[in-house]
Structures are given as C-alpha cells and as structure tokens.
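REQUEST
  id: r-88c1
  op: predict_structure
  target: Argininosuccinate synthase
  payload:
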Amino acid sequence: MSKVLSSLPVGEHVGIAFSGGLDTSCAVAWMRHKGAIPCTYTADIGQYDEPDLESVTERAKEYGAEIARFVDAKRLLVEEGFVALQCGAFNVRSGGKTYFNTTPLGRAVTGTMLVRAMKEDGVDIWGDGSTYKGNDIERFYRYGLMANPKLRIYKPWLDSAFVDELGGRQEMSEWLVEHGYPYRDSAEKAYSTDANIWGATHEAKTLEFLDAGLDIVEPIMGVAAWRDDVEVKSEEVSVRFEAGRPVAING
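RESPONSE
  id: r-88c1
  status: 200
  body:
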C-alpha cells in the first residue's frame, strides 16, 4: 500500500519533479534545510516555453539537490500522442469548445518517466510542486504509483509546516534570499503556460475569470487568430502514413 506522508521525511531521499521555477526551487532548498535529502528529476518533453531547460539540473544543485537528473521523455510523449489520436482521445469538447489533451498527456509521461528514473536511483519517495488547488497533484500521485506501486508520497503543499512558513510567492522568494540561495525573479504574467512537443495551453490566474478576454494572451505557438488585425491564411499540407501511423509532413 502506498503511504502519503504528512510531514517531511528527515534523513531520507525525496524525489521531486523539478521545473526550476520558484515553487520547486524553494521546495528543494527548504527540504535540504530541514534535513531531508532532495533529489530532482526534470523531464524534457519539448517544452518550448522553457528556453533554458538544459541548465535546470545545475540550478537544482545550487538549491541543495543530492541528485539532479535530466530525463529525455520526448519520444515516449510522441508515442502516447499517436495512441491518443488513434483512440480519438487527443481532444475533448465541452461547451461547444475543443480542448486538446496536450497537458494531460504530458503529465502522464512526466509522472511515469521520472518515477522510473527515481527507482533506478533507489529513491522511493515522490513529490512535486503542484498545489492542492489543481488536478496536477492528483495526476502525479496516480501516475507515480503506476510506475512504482511501493512509492511513498510527500508533497510540500500538503505539509502544513511548509505551507505555514512558505504559503505564497512573496514568502518563498524572501525565504530564499534570507537563506542565501539564488533567486531569479521572473516577471509575473496574468496567466500561466504549459507546453510540450504536442502543443501548448494558456490558463490560470486572470484567465480563470469569466470577464477576462483572450486579448491579454500572447500565444507561445501559432498566432492570435481571435484578433481582428491577424489574418490566418489557409495552407495545404500532406501527411504520409505507414502502417496507420503518421511519419512525415510534406514529404
């Protein structure tokens, strides 16, 4: 049976999905400061909204990671995307709108691939920086158990000690500075992005409000087709299939 830990497992190795953002950077530093041994795992899923991805492992070590691994998961994500297309599960429709499952596919591959890498290193405690407000905390939990049924779960945002001390972005940034850790202050956007080799989504923050329009969005792929001054020209493309699988575009 899996066990969800409510407090930090001091003295033990704790694997964490590490993006290099404020939440996971602070979580790694805080765990090391409190006596755990953090080990970071970063998945390369073709996320073009992270321009400096290859430097993430070195940054993880700056925050106290004992192990910092970079896991190339692009090929598996492509394969999973093909399966979703063949099953008619690549997108869903709700309220007359199409939602592409690029982010859910990415979470499935990230969760399983990183836990497999952890298992190779003998790390059987798994966590991530997702908060209790969204569904990512449940996604990573369940996908992790698929890869290692003996996994124990420790999530900083379910630990009252972490939340009480570092419950917001301001508290986290101040804590890092006070304890001498590097902190790269990034400009706050009115929304967040999730990108991988299959596509990108723009969500959360201001975009969650019904009175917020798409005008605030600067798309990280494609063009802002909803704007009156943007012309989207039609284009013909050819896709070559072999044994029912796409293998080439325009060639």
